[in-house]
Amino acid sequence: MTVRLVVVDDHPVVRDGLRGMLGTQPDFAIVGEAAGGAEALTVVAAERPDVVLTDLRMPEPSGGTLIRLLLERVPTVRVLVLTTHDTDSDVLPAVEAGAIGYLLKDAPREELFRAVRAAARGETVLSPSVAAVLLSRVRPRKPTPTGQLSAREREIVALVAQGRTNREVAAALYISEATVKTHLLRIYAKLEVPDRAAAVSAAHRLGIL
């Protein structure tokens, strides 16, 4: 499967670098690029890519607003953030707006390649520092015994263990993708793990599955 990409960044050197780096992968096809939010909306609407790789701070619209508008215009697109900013004020609006992943620009190229492929499959991808920010927000105020998942959380872990994407989990349970992401973050916090693969492993170990 070829992953069709649009790259959005207001720095030409960054766009050139990403285009050259991503172009080394035979399963990636860069179908467009943009230097700001308005241009990104036009390009994405015309090309309808699988994944949009975007920075956050650019000519408006940007950040969470841009992500929300992209998903409103092309609901099938997956938005993967690639930025230098990992503060609460950047991370939370982006995730709440519907970004499927959030990486920092110092990520190794192989990590970026994996993230793009995972995003195309509908899987959430977070850099460790970003995961820490989100977990600090969803971690229960009172200590929760490891493995004490709600009935809904157990259903979600079971579906994830079957290899279902967030979209497929949402369809199976008649809830939104955003709700699935919120449940997953709570599951990560309760199981004290960083991602879905580790959550499935922990759930098996604890006898939840």
Automatic annotation (TrEMBL):
Residues 142-207 form the HTH luxR-type domain. The modification 4-aspartylphosphate is found at residue 55. It comes from Paractinoplanes lichenicola. PANTHER family: TRANSCRIPTIONAL REGULATORY PROTEIN NARL-RELATED, TWO-COMPONENT RESPONSE REGULATOR. PROSITE patterns: HTH_LUXR_1, HTH_LUXR_2, RESPONSE_REGULATORY. Keywords: DNA-binding, Phosphoprotein, Transcription, Transcription regulation. InterPro entries: CheY-like_superfamily, NreC/VraR/RcsB-like_REC, Sig_transdc_resp-reg_C-effctor, Sig_transdc_resp-reg_receiver, Tscrpt_reg_LuxR_C, WalR-like. This is Response regulator transcription factor. Pfam families: GerE (PF00196), Response_reg (PF00072). Residues 4-120 form the Response regulatory domain.
